[in-house]
């Protein structure tokens, strides 16, 4: 809201009007309700506060030095809501408004740490959600610092997934995508009537890779996609956003270059991330027989492939396109230089932890 509009509003109400930025906690302390939305108002003894914009944990409010009647607050709130909606061509404008409203609520709940919050009945999109939706979290950092228009991105995503897919804007360059779980059976090449747990995760991973390729091909820039197993959005949409955000964070922290992030592949990373930095660094220094062992790119790529193939020598050799004996030679070299045999379970666990910690500490 610019100065001209503030001045016009001040003249209309015959009272000083200004813009004020508040936190959610400050808003509640003034008598405002939890999870405020655009147009919400609270009246103190001498001032009326009205939300004109919600940006995560921050609120931009009108501060009106007057006591407004309930009808005046209602009319002004309606005007603020209408002014805050960005018009979009076509029939998708209402859907975009509803999606942005839901995204604001999710962001507020995540910021407040209310991961178990259930979707309020007042959210219009609640009626379009059902049990069993596959959640994708999309984070695109565009080269030109631009993001595609909502209607364009929604059309692209629905073309790849299902027609009833919901696109929910969260933070800048970040979207939550909820798609019907029938996309799993449609993507199942074996046409199984009932998908097993591992089959489901495999198909979900493939869908995430396809979505990533589609979006980077369409808009470019650095794009990250995290995906989870089917959820009941009304009960766990806040929790899944928090989980998928953490999954992307861990993937970018421990695995440079990784752009597809799966929660079930970062359990160890989640545990190690909670260890204080000083403790991590000291552990690496004490346990590394050769401090420069992981500076060799061939050693690191060999170990990464070996662990990704569940320590299977034959499958690792195929993945690296080398002879089995060449791989055995490399593993024996690691054993000789580090004193750790990755073909032994205990040593493999230790090397895996050391490698993950080293990838983080070397960038400090």
Q: Give the CA-based shape.
A: elongated
CATH topology of the largest domain: Alpha-Beta Plaits
- CATH architecture label name of the largest domain: 2-Layer Sandwich
Give the SSE string. HEHEEEHHEHEEHHEHEHHHHHH
What is the top-level CATH class of the largest domain?
Alpha Beta
The radius of gyration over CA amounts to: 26 Å
Distance between the termini: 43 Å
- Estimate the mean pLDDT confidence: 86
Please give the oligomerization state of what you see.
single chain
How many separate domains?
3
Coarse structural class:
alpha+beta
Low-confidence stretches: 85-92
Largest sheet: 5 strands, mixed
Q: Which strand order spans the largest sheet, edge to edge or round the barrel?
A: 6-7-5-8-9
Helix percentage range: 40-55%
Number of helices: 14
Give the amount of beta strand, in percent.
5-15%
Number of strands: 9
Overview of the molecule:
It contains 14 helices and 9 strands. The chain has 3 domains: 3-84, no CATH class; 120-264, Alpha-Beta Plaits (2-Layer Sandwich); 275-361, PucR C-terminal helix-turn-helix domain (Arc Repressor Mutant, subunit A, Orthogonal Bundle), CATH 1.10.10.2840. Strand 6 and strand 7 (174-180) form a beta hairpin. The chain has helices spanning 3-13, 24-29, 70-84, 93-111, 150-160, 182-187, 197-219, 233-254, 267-273, 277-287, 297-308, 313-320, 324-338, 345-361, and strands at residues 17-23, 41-43, 48-55, 58-64, 133-141, 166-169, 174-180, 222-227, 260-261. The two termini are 43 Å apart. It has 364 residues and is of the alpha+beta class. The radius of gyration is 26 Å and the shape is elongated. The strands form 2 sheets. Strands 6-7-5-8-9 form a 5-stranded mixed β-sheet, with helices on both faces. Strands 1-4-3-2 form a 4-stranded antiparallel β-sheet. Pfam families: HTH_30. Residues 300-356 form the PucR C-terminal helix-turn-helix domain. Residues 23-42 are annotated as: Disordered. InterPro entries: CdaR-like_regulators (IPR051448), Homeodomain-like_sf (IPR009057), PucR_C-HTH_dom (IPR025736), PucR_C-HTH_sf (IPR042070).
